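Hi all, posting the design record for the shared folder.

TITLE: backbone redesign
STEP: 1 of 1
STRUCTURE INPUT:
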């Protein structure tokens, strides 16, 4: 792989001029030319650069030649670093999609001439085949859901579009080709009819179809729809017989524009971004194939593209409100993907506490609403484009940039996942020793799989994680959903809430108030503060790593007390109480206890202050001992009357 840095980009700023020197069909001549300001994207030493995809952060992916020039391979251009990617053993490797996390997708051709999907994730290439397909071509990936889109070819050689797990066949089509899916779930692609003619299509979220055709061009060799934005702007390319390949932009009001890079032989638009800018590649007159980005020369709202708002966010913590109502409902996850945030924090006004979403969350998080402020943390400054319509139901607030100095970490999230056994042990016990016939029947012949699933994949709903900063002694208690938790804190006056070197202490509490974990501590580093996130994994929930006898409470007491303890393995347990002379006062036989934490009043050993004869003992100091076949520990307690 190459690791060349881009030295510069050659900037072409001009109005679109008439295309000259090529035979054009009357239809092409009648199509107005879109007015863009173009910028060539080049990599030193590379004369073949097909840019096929971009993300919201100005990163690119596409296709180039291998270092030896013998084959086509995929490439990524992320943070201005160019890398080639070649699936091992492939004839060629192609990239056509790129999401905001840097995941690139496409397909490769194997030695037998068959195509398989390929996914680049964390620097590694992985094969993907659509279920049941003989061949798979991936052309897109959704930022919102992570769903792949493209073509799936069956054993008979018939191509079907797909998006996620959904296979799509245009009604009556001989072949159906898929390409891209937008946030609303609208899928675009192309199909071939019974007469061999190409048409574009939109498969709407409700399952209905719309056809896309190039007006008054009956002699099409092919037409392929590449992209659709959330606002419904469509990009496609087509070639008429005896004409060059041309690219088009179709606006939601059915206005059609041709796109031409100035003085190019041909122009291919591969993607339309939310702000109306386009990316693709062109063939130059000197024989090179280069990438480009084109930005509308007129304001988008005036050009039929919809409302657009550009916002500059700084490295570190920012407070913002979403300036436009998105065409598709926005969540914490989609806001994080759009901004590149390591965390999104909101104020829950009902509960009067901060809530957070982090990338390790199992769901999309809380909804993003108009007129409300959200805290996002970025690892670098960037411009973010919002599209949509004006908010109508909420009082819109201005987007607020980050305030305060960069050294202040005024918001922070402690997040993680729990692993272990929930305290509701009756479920596992009932499965092993079903006391009623319905339960035994359910285990042997489950009508619903929730029971077995609950045992194999325990959820910790109802649990809470207690987080404490030992420097400030600020404590946050947050609920667990499934096995995930996120505890957030913020100071809206932009004063620091954590510092490097702070010790963060955590423990887990069950639904009945019983402590269900050992107390663990973590030291905050510069990296934690840069991310505004401490991500942890709490193992051994419900099962201590060692036996231990804890201090009774209350202490001193009168007349009763509770004696907490923990067991690392199932064991018979007894607690013996002695006076200061060593005389046995009382033995509490607790029987065989399962491994776990016995801390709450409902689970700890209880002593009512009486001896073996039922008489209240005198004031003074006493000793209590926890005993199992392999463990003994002694502590002191005091009765005051």
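Okay, here is what came back for every position:
SEQUENCE:
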């Amino acid at each position: 792989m190459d690791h060349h840095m881009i030295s510069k980009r050659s900037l072409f700023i001009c109005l679109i001029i008439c295309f000259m020197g090529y035979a054009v069909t009357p239809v092409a001549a009648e199509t107005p030319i879109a007015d863009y300001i173009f910028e060539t994207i080049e990599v030193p030493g590379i004369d073949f650069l097909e840019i096929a995809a971009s993300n919201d952060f100005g990163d690119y992916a596409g296709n180039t030649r291998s270092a030896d020039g013998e084959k086509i391979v995929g490439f990524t251009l992320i943070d201005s670093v160019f890398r080639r990617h070649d699936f091992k053993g492939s004839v060629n490797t192609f990239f056509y999609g790129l999401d905001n996390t840097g995941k690139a997708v496409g397909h490769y051709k194997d030695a037998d001439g068959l195509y398989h999907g390929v996914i680049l994730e964390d620097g590694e290439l992985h094969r993907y085949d659509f279920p049941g397909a003989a061949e798979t071509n991936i052309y897109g990936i959704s930022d919102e859901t992570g769903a792949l889109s493209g073509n799936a070819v069956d054993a008979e050689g018939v191509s079907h579009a797909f998006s996620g797990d959904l296979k799509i066949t245009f009604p009556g089509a001989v072949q159906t080709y898929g390409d891209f899916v937008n946030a609303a779930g609208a899928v675009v692609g192309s199909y071939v009819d019974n007469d061999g003619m190409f048409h574009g299509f939109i498969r709407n979220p409700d399952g209905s179809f719309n056809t896309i055709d190039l007006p008054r061009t009956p002699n099409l060799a092919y037409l392929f729809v590449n992209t659709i934005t959330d606002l419904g702007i469509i990009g496609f390319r087509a070639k008429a017989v005896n004409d060059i390949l041309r690219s088009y932009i179709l606006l939601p009001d059915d206005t059609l524009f041709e796109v031409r890079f100035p003085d190019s032989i041909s122009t291919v638009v591969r993607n339309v971004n939310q702000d109306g800018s386009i990316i693709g590649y062109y063939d130059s007159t000197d024989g090179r194939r280069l990438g480009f980005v084109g930005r509308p020369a007129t304001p988008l709202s005036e050009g039929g593209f919809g409302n657009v708002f550009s916002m500059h966010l700084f490295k570190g913590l920012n407070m913002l409100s979403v300036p436009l109502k998105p065409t598709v409902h926005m969540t914490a996850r989609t806001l994080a993907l759009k901004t590149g945030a390591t965390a999104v924090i909101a104020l829950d006004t009902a509960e009067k506490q901060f809530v957070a979403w982090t990338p390790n969350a199992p769901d999309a998080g809380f909804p993003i609403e108009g007129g409300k402020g959200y805290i996002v943390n970025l690892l670098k400054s960037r411009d973010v484009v919002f599209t949509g319509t004006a908010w109508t139901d909420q009082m819109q607030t201005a987007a607020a940039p980050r305030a305060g100095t960069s050294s202040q970490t005024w918001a922070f999230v402690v997040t993680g996942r729990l692993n272990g056994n929930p305290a509701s042990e009756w479920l596992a016990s009932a499965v092993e020793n079903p006391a009623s016939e319905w339960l035994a029947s359910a285990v042997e012949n489950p009508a619903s799989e929730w029971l077995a699933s609950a045992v194999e994949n325990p959820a910790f709903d109802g649990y809470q994680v207690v987080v404490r900063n030992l420097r400030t002694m600020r404590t946050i208690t947050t609920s667990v959903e499934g096995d995930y938790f996120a505890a957030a804190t913020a100071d809206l006056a932009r004063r620091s809430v954590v510092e490097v070197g702070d010790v963060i202490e955590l423990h887990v509490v069950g639904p009945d108030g019983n402590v269900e974990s050992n107390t663990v501590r973590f030291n905050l580093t510069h990296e934690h503060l840069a991310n505004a996130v401490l991500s942890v994994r709490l193992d051994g929930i419900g099962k201590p790593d060692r036996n231990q006898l804890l201090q009774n409470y209350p202490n001193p007491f009168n007349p009763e007390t509770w004696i907490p303890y923990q067991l690392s393995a199932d064991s018979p347990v007894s607690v013996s109480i002695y006076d200061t002379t060593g005389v046995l006062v009382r033995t509490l036989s607790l029987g065989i206890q399962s491994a776990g934490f016995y801390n709450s009043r409902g689970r700890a050993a209880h002593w009512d202050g009486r001896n073996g004869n039922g008489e209240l003992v005198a004031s003074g100091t006493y000793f209590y001992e926890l005993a199992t076949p392999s463990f003994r520990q002694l502590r002191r307690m005091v009765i005051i009357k």
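COMMENT: The mean pLDDT is 87.
Let me know if anyone wants the other runs.
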